[in-house]
Amino acid sequence: MHTTDKPTATIAGDPAPTALPHRRRLIPGGDGHQLLWVLLTVGVAVMVLLPLVPLQWQAWKNGGDGMRRLFDMHGIGEVFRTTLLLGFGGMAVGLVMGTILALCTYSLTPRLRTALEFLPVLPLIIPAVAHVVGFVFLFSPENGYVNAFLRWTPFSGGSSGPINVYTLFWIIFYTGTHLAAFVYMFVYTGLRNLGADYGLAARVNGAGGFRALVTITLPLLRPTFVYAGVVVLLLSLGQFTGPLILGRREGIDVVTTRMYEVSAEYPVDYGLAAALGTPLIVLALVLVLLQRRMLGNQNRFVGQGAATMDNRMLNPVVSWICAAMVGAYVLVAAILPLLAVGFVAFSPFWSGTVDFGVLTSTNFSDVLADAAVRQSIIVTLVVAVVGVLLVIPIGMLIALGIYNKDKLWKPLPAILDFVANLPLTVPAALLGFGFLFAFANPAIGLYGTKASLILAYMTIMIPYSVRYQLSSLVALGRQTTEASQVSGAGPLRTFFRIILPLSRTGIASSAAIMFVLLTHEFGVSLLLRAPGVNVMSVVLYDQYNGGSYPRVAVIALIMTLMTSLGVAAAMFFGGRRALEKL
User: Fold this and answer.
1) Which pLDDT score, from 0 to 100, does residue 455 have?
2) How far apart are CA 525 and CA 520, in angstroms?
3) How does the average pLDDT of the chain come out, rounded?
4) Global pTM?
5) Is the per-residue pLDDT at 256 higher than 60?
6) Could you read off the pLDDT of 82-139 as tens digits, one per residue?
7) Paired residues of 535 in beta bridges
8) Does residue 195 have a pLDDT over 70?
9) Considering only CA atoms, which of 180, 173, 175 is closest in space to residue 104?
10) Phi, then psi, of 447 in degrees rounded to 5
11) What are residue 117's phi and psi, to 5 degrees?
12) φ/ψ (deg, to 5) at 402
């Protein structure tokens, strides 16, 4: 909640000014300046709605022909059922697993917590395509390394299984395991902000540890659970990478993969493909409205402990048990997939047998000698870096408008806030289809160019850029800028001499995080691909479809290395907790 009080900065011995002149406002007043903010609002709205309006236009044109044919489509009921199962199943697994991880980490002794609190975030560092491929190498029923080990034990036998990663149950488990890292960040941050005082007060009054958890801690975290639940549900419903790679073998389709199949046929049935995504967009908007209604008056759930030090009585035995649970999650969700990818990268082929005597480095030289791979690395770096550099100033302007909403015409900040967050409510794969429809239009003519990828990347990064810049402004506080204005500095001078220098660390950290997110991006990139304009995630997928598994593993390792460099930069500028912005 951002304050809208008028500036009240004071100087010792002088009376407080009642108001600042218009020329000293952080955002200048006057109709001329307001018009500039109107133009910014319109520009951002056009940018965000560019992929959404064509999508709905295709679905509803010709009297809603696409929507009518959608309900006559063979197997559409099963597709929607599978999508809902994946959405709610992934949310349930992610919420339970992520909450347990956060509670376990919070229950560690300070020394263990310092060492382990970062580890549950590791699955987010691995690019999504590489992460899914790592699970395939581990749990494929024929050649998966974990399955091979299980068949070696007396508890299992046969020539395949016992785990089949290509079934719906395991796709849901994979999705929930991956998204548990998001839930962990939300809940763990909520626990830290809550403090230990309330739980200690309950213990002093005779409540046991479990009762204090159920009656005090968890109810106070209700906003966190509601927000995390809606975000994870939206991410689960819009899953594309996992179902595309894991589900096609067993014929498991969700909305996003069926849209991809329709768009891959020639001629493309744009009306039907667009109609497939309409129910997801409607459901996303309903979930966002429901989230706000469920949160209601958040002041009822605010609880900030006053203690400046963690004075909880932590049991060392419980702490080590919790450490083991955190380690088990990190092992399954991050370490084993990376080890599997690394082993296949050095193997002549993927057989499911661990034989260190056949390891070779020729796969790396073959991949790096491939012109298409080298070009994809260059394209990935160029579009990601340019997209980040362009979206940061846009995010800063929007953040300034939202933060200083009392200085703008009343509707503008609300509209800016809505359109800036709209891409978060729509699955990235659906935005990709919208961009495909829009850029393929001859009037725009951007399809198949780097500019199309850059514009798409900027659009999907707007919510993140705004949130990062807004966080920097909130952390900076109004006192500093008010002092500058009282001293006679105008809005531009205050921005360039005060806000920008004090926010540069946060901006650099945010840029690194957005670079990480864009190097992971797959859904939008796959739909906007063109000869000569391919990113690494799409090239990896092509190699996987071709059965070149060692080459897939090498590309996955290169992508992970690039991501790790971005994460290292984010942590260098923003500290250990910089990844909470993910």
Assistant:
1) 92
2) 10
3) 81
4) 0.81
5) yes
6) 999 999 999 999 999 999 999 999 888 888 888 888 889 888 888 888 899 999 999 9
7) none
8) no
9) 180
10) -60, 135
11) -65, -25
12) -70, -40
Confidence of residue 28 (pLDDT cuts 50, 70, 90): low
Collapse the DSSP code of 156 into the 3-class scheme (helix H, G, I; strand E, B; otherwise coil) and give the result.
coil
What SS3 state is found at 533?
strand
For the four alpha carbons of 563, 569, 574 and 576, in that order, the dihedral sign comes to positive
Buried b (16+ CB within 10 A) or exposed e, 395-428: bbbbbbbbbbbebbeeebbebbbebbebbbbbbb
CA-to-CA dists, residue 463 to 102, 405, 455, 526, angstroms: 25, 18, 14, 22
Rounded-to-integer distance, Cα 398 and Cα 416, Å: 7
- pLDDT of res. 384: 92
User: Is the separation of the CB atoms in 180 and 93 below 8 Å?
Assistant: yes
What the block records as the tokens of 310 is: 């963690």
> Are residues 572 and 511 in contact, defined by beta-carbon separation less than 8 angstroms?
no
Residue 530 has φ and ψ, to the nearest 5°, of -160, 160
Q: Go through the domains of the chain in sequence order and give each one's CATH number.
A: 33-50+361-582 (1.10.3720.10), 73-354 (1.10.3720.10)
Closest CA to 109 of 317, 415, 376, 331: 317
Taking only the tens place, the pLDDT of each residue in 216-246 is 777 778 888 888 888 889 889 888 889 999 9
pLDDT of 569 above 50: yes
Distance of CA 23 to the CA centre of its chain: 39
